[in-house]
C-alpha cells in the first residue's frame, strides 16, 4: 500500500526543507519533489516531522494500592491524538518477581496498543535472580534499567543495590536510569508533616523539596561514574538536579536529563488551589516547582544540557485521588499528559521563540531515539525508517479539556489551556491514525520495539580508573612498630 504526503515542509532535528514523502508498507520509501500515486495526504501549510516518542509512561501500572487508569489502548490513542507515535513504558516487577515474568505481564497488556512501544525494566529489588535476569532482559530487547531512589519500603533501592545494579548494567551495555529523590528524607519529612497535622495535597510539595532531588541526582551521577555506566535521569524538575546534570556533561560524562511538559508549564501554586480535588489531581513526584525552576528547565532545553521532554503519564481518576483524603501520602502519585505534550511544548516552546522547530523535533523524538538506540528506525525521516510521522499544522488551535480528550480520566491538568499547533495527520507505521482530530486508531496495531545494547561506557582514556577492578595490595599484616 502506497501513501504520499504532499506539499509539506519536512522538519527534522537537523534540517528544514520542502519535499514529499512516499510510504510503502509502513516504511519511508522515498523523499523528494512532486511524488505521485497511491493515497495522497495534503500537507500544504504543515510541517512533516518524526512522530513523537514519549519515553516515560506508566500504563495500567499497579501503584499505591491501585492501577493507573490509562491502559495501552487508551494511552497510545491519546499519544497519537497529540502526535506521539511511540511510548516507552516501565515494566515493574513485584518484590521477589523475576524480571522476565514481569515482562511477560507487560506483553499481555501491551497487545492492545495502537502505536509502537518499547519497555524499560525497573529494578525494584535486588538479588542473584535479578542479576541473572538482567542479561535475559537485554537479550529480549529491554536494555534500559530504571531505579527508584524514592518510595521507601516499596520500590526504593539502596546505594549498595544501586551500585551493584549499575555495574551490571554497564557490563551488559545497557542504560542506567534513576528516579532521583532521596527516599529516606522524603519519608522523614512526610512523617513530620503528618504528625503536625499537615495532611492536604500542598504538603506533598513540602515533603519533596528541590534539595531531595538535587542530592539524589548528584549521588546517582557519582555512583554511575564509579560504575562506568551512562545515566538517564527521569523527570528532572529543578535547578539543583539540572545543575548536577550540567556539571556531569561538562566533565564529559554521558548523563541525560528529562524534564516533563508538566514541570515546564505548571507551577507549585496548583497545590494551593482551594479545591482539594484540583490540588490532588496534580500530585506527582517530583512535585511542580516555582518559576525559577521552570526557567532553569527551559534554559536546559535551549542550551542542550537537558535532552528530552516526556510526560511520566501515570493517570488516576478523581475517585482514585480521593484515596488520599486526610493523608496526602496516600494520594496516588501521577498526572496525565500523553495527548498534550507536543501541542503544549509547541505552544510554549516554539510559538514563544524559546525553541526552534528543529529543537522541538530533537527533544520530542530524535534525541531519545538515539539515547535508547532505536534510531533511525524511530525519530528520523530517512528512507528505510518507520513511517511514524506527524503532519503538524502550526495554525490549528484548540482549548484543552477533559470533555474532548482520549485519556480515560475525568479531568486534565492543562484544562482550559489554549494551544496552537496540532496534528493534521498522525501516522503509525504508515497507517493514518488521526486525521484532523478524527480518531482512526486500531487497537493491536502497535508493535514491540526491541532495542540492542550499546557497548559505550563512560570512560575517558586519559583518566580511566576501573574502580571495580582488584586493587594492588601494598601492605600485608600489621606494622611491627606502633604509631
Ligand atoms: N512519579 C509519579 O508521579 N507517578 C509514577 C511514578 C513516579 O515516579
Ligand atoms: Zn519517577
Ligand atoms: Zn515515572
Ligand atoms: Zn496498520
Q: Report helical residue fraction.
A: 25-40%
Which shape, going by the Cα principal axes? globular
Question: Which structural class do the helices and strands define?
Answer: alpha/beta
Termini separation: 84 Å
**Unreliable spans:** none
Note the beta-strand portion.
15-25%
Strand order of the largest sheet: 3-2-7-17-18-19-20
* Helix segment tally: 14
Using only C-alpha atoms, the radius of gyration works out to 23 Å
CATH class: Alpha Beta
Architecture per CATH nomenclature, i.e. the level-2 architecture: Alpha-Beta Barrel
Q: What's the name of the CATH homologous superfamily? A: Metal-dependent hydrolases
Tell how many strands the DSSP assignment holds.
Answer: 20
Q: Whole-number average pLDDT?
A: 95
- Which small-molecule species are bound to the chains here? dihydropyrimidine-2,4(1H,3H)-dione, zinc ion
Amino acid at each position: 500500500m502506497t501513501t504520499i504526503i504532499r506539499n509539506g515542509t519536512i522538519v527534522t532535528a537537523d534540517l528544514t526543507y520542502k519535499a514529499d514523502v512516499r510510504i510503502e508498507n509502513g516504511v519511508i520509501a522515498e523523499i523528494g519533489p512532486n511524488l505521485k500515486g497511491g493515497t495522497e495526504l495534503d500537507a500544504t501549510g504543515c510541517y512533516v516531522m518524526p512522530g513523537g516518542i514519549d519515553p516515560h509512561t506508566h500504563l495500567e501500572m499497579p501503584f499505591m494500592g491501585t492501577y493507573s487508569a490509562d491502559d495501552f489502548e487508551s494511552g497510545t490513542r491519546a499519544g497519537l491524538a497529540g502526535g506521539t507515535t511511540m511510548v516507552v513504558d516501565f515494566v515493574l516487577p513485584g518484590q521477589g518477581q523475576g524480571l522476565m515474568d514481569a515482562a511477560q505481564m507487560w506483553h499481555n497488556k501491551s497487545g492492545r496498543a495502537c502505536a509502537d512501544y518499547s519497555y524499560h525494566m525497573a529494578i525494584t529489588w535486588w538479588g542473584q535472580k535479578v542479576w541473572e535476569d538482567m542479561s535475559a532482559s537485554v537479550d529480549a530487547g529491554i536494555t534500559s534499567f530504571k531505579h527508584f531512589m524514592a518510595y521507601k519500603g516499596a520500590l526504593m533501592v539502596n546505594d549498595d543495590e544501586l551500585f551493584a545494579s549499575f555495574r551490571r548494567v554497564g557490563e551488559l551495555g545497557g542504560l542506567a536510569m534513576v528516579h532521583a529523590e532521596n527516599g529516606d528524607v522524603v519519608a522523614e519529612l512526610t512523617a513530620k508533616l503528618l504528625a503536625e497535622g499537615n495532611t492536604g495535597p500542598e504538603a506533598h510539595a513540602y515533603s519533596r523539596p528541590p534539595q531531595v532531588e538535587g542530592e539524589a541526582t548528584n549521588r546517582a551521577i557519582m555512583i554511575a561514574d564509579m560504575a562506568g555506566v551512562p545515566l538517564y535521569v527521569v523527570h528532572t524538575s529543578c535547578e539543583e538536579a539540572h545543575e548536577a546534570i550540567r556539571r556531569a556533561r561538562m566533565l564529559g560524562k554521558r548523563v541525560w536529563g528529562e524534564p516533563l511538559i508538566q514541570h515546564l508549564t505548571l507551577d507549585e501554586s496548583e497545590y494551593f488551589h482551594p479545591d482539594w480535588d484540583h490540588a490532588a489531581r496534580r500530585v506527582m513526584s517530583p512535585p511542580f516547582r516555582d518559576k525559577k525552576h521552570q526557567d532553569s528547565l527551559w534554559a536546559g532545553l535551549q542550551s542542550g544540557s537537558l535532552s528530552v521532554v516526556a510526560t511520566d503519564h501515570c493517570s488516576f481518576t478523581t475517585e482514585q485521588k480521593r484515596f488520599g483524603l486526610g493523608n496526602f501520602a496516600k494520594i496516588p502519585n501521577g498526572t496525565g499528559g500523553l495527548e498534550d505534550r507536543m501541542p503544549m511544548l509547541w505552544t510554549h516552546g516554539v510559538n514563544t521563540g524559546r525553541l526552534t522547530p528543529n529543537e522541538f523535533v530533537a527533544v520530542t523524538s530524535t534525541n531519545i531515539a538515539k539515547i535508547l538506540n532505536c534510531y533511525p528506525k524511530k525519530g528520523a525521516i530517512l528512507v528505510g525508517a518507520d513511517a511514524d510521522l506527524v503532519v503538524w499544522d502550526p495554525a490549528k488551535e484548540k482549548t484543552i479539556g477533559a470533555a474532548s480528550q482520549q485519556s480515560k480520566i475525568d479531568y486534565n491538568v492543562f484544562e482550559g489551556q489554549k494551544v496552537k499547533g496540532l496534528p493534521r495527520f498522525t501516522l503509525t507505521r504508515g497507517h493514518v491514525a488521526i486525521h484532523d482530530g478524527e480518531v482512526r486508531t486500531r487497537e493491536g496495531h502497535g508493535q514491540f520495539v526491541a532495542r540492542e545494547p550499546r557497548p559505550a561506557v563512560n570512560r575517558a582514556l586519559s583518566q580511566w580508573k576501573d574502580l571495580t577492578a582488584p586493587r594492588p595490595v601494598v601492605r600485608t599484616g600489621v606494622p611491627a612498630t606502633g604509631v
